[in-house]
Specification:
alpha+beta; binds 3-hydroxybenzoic acid
Length: 333
C-alpha cells in the first residue's frame, strides 16, 4: 500500500508520500501532486494545487500519486508553461516539453525559464529533479539518442545559470510509456544547508566522457538537505561503464551495492554528523525495470533487502542506456 498514515508535515521538510490513485485524503497544505498513470497530462493548477500526470504505468496497474506536503501557507501559480507553488521554504516547479523532432533547444528553454523563476522567487537551491523522457533511448530526427539530445539542452541551461542556480542536484532521468518530456523539481532558499554527494564507485555523471553524448548528464548521485536524503536514480554502473549487461541478477546486485556505498557512513558521514544509512532505511522507492519479465525477480530481491515498511513502486519503462535493466531511486526522510 502507498498510504502514509504518519502524515505529519514537519515545519521545514518537504514531506513526500505516495498515495493511492483517487485517494486525495488531505488536499490541505499540499505543495504539489504528480500522478503516475497510464496517460499523462500537462502540468496544471488543480483546485489550486500544481498537478501533472506522467505516463508511467500500464493499463493493468492501479497508478499512484507522489504528493509533496507543504511546510507553510502555499502560493501557487502558472507562468507560461511553468506551474509552480512556494511555501516559504520550498518551490515545486513543473513543465512539459511536448514531443518534437529535436529536444536540445526546448530542454534548454524549459530549464532556463524554470531557473529564472526559481531565482526570482528566491529558491535557487535545487534539491531534487525528475526528468521523465519519452522515447529516451530512441533516436531524434538527427539520429542522436533522445537522452543525449535532452542532456545537451539541460547542460546548456545549467551552464547559463552557473553561479545563480547554486549547484547540480540529485536527479532521475528515465523513460516513460508516452512521449515528450515531463520535468519537475523542488528547490530551497539560498541559505538552506544543502550537500550534494558523489559515489566513490562511480564517475561523476557531469564528468562522463563524450562517448556518452555531446554534453554530460547534469546530476549528482544524492542530495542531503533539511535532514532528508534524496538518492538519485542508481543503476549497474561502475566508473562510467554498465556492468552485467543482459544479467538482471548481477545488475540488481551492483545497483544495491552502489546505493549502500553512497549512503554509508564513509560517504554520507562526510556531511551528516550522525553517520550513514543502510538499505533498510530507504523509503519512497521507485524501481524502474526495462523488461517486464524481470519484474517478479526484481520484486523478490527488493522484498529481501528493503524494510517491510518501505513504500516501493515498480515501473516498467526504459532506462537511459539500452543496456541497463534496472534503476532504483529512493528517499530517506
Ligand atoms: C539524469 O540524467 O538526470 C539521470 C539519469 C539517470 C539516473 C539519474 C539521473 O539514469
Amino acid at each position: 500500500s502507498f498510504v502514509d498514515l504518519r502524515n505529519s508535515p514537519s515545519e521545514i521538510r518537504p514531506n513526500i508520500k505516495f498515495e493511492q490513485q483517487g485517494e486525495h485524503s488531505d488536499s490541505q497544505n499540499i505543495l504539489a501532486r504528480v500522478a503516475f498513470e497510464k496517460n499523462g497530462f500537462a502540468p496544471e493548477l488543480h483546485k489550486g494545487v500544481p498537478t501533472l500526470g506522467v505516463p508511467m504505468t500500464t493499463e493493468t496497474e492501479p497508478g499512484f500519486q507522489e504528493v509533496f506536503a507543504a511546510s507553510g501557507p502555499v502560493v501557487a501559480g502558472r507562468e507560461g508553461n511553468l506551474v509552480y507553488a512556494v511555501d516559504g521554504r520550498h518551490l515545486f516547479c513543473a513543465v512539459q516539453v511536448v514531443e518534437r523532432d529535436i529536444y536540445r533547444d526546448a530542454a534548454r528553454i524549459a530549464y532556463d525559464s524554470a531557473f529564472e523563476l526559481a531565482t526570482r522567487l528566491g529558491y535557487p537551491n535545487i534539491l531534487r529533479m525528475w526528468n521523465l523522457v519519452g522515447g529516451i533511448i530512441d533516436d531524434n530526427a538527427d539520429g542522436v539518442e533522445i537522452y543525449r539530445d535532452f542532456c545537451a539542452g539541460r547542460s546548456e541551461a545549467f551552464a547559463l545559470w552557473s553561479g545563480r542556480i547554486l549547484h547540480i542536484p540529485a536527479a532521475t532521468g528515465i523513460g516513460t510509456r508516452g512521449n515528450g518530456v515531463y520535468l519537475y523539481f523542488i528547490s530551497g532558499r539560498a541559505d538552506a544547508e544543502v550537500h550534494h554527494l558523489e559515489n566513490p564507485r562511480q564517475t561523476p555523471a557531469y564528468h562522463y566522457p563524450e562517448s556518452y553524448g555531446p554534453k554530460s548528464p547534469s546530476f549528482a548521485r544524492a542530495t542531503f538537505a533539511d535532514g532528508i536524503l534524496y538518492i538519485s536514480g542508481t543503476a549497474s554502473i561502475l566508473g562510467d561503464e554498465t556492468v552485467h549487461k543482459g544479467d538482471i541478477s548481477g545488475q540488481v546486485d551492483v545497483t544495491l551495492e552502489n546505493i549502500a556505498t553512497l549512503i554509508s557512513t564513509e560517504n554520507l558521514g562526510k556531511v551528516r554528523p550522525e553517520g550513514g544509512y543502510s538499505l533498510q532505511d530507504l523509503d519512497l522507492i521507485k524501481v524502474y525495470v526495462s523488461r517486464p519479465e524481470d519484474i517478479p525477480y526484481v520484486r523478490s530481491r527488493c522484498k529481501e533487502v528493503f524494510s517491510p515498511d518501505a513504500r516501493v513502486v515498480y515501473l516498467n519503462v526504459d532506462i537511459c542506456r539500452p543496456d541497463l535493466l534496472v534503476e532504483i531511486e529512493a528517499i530517506v526522510q
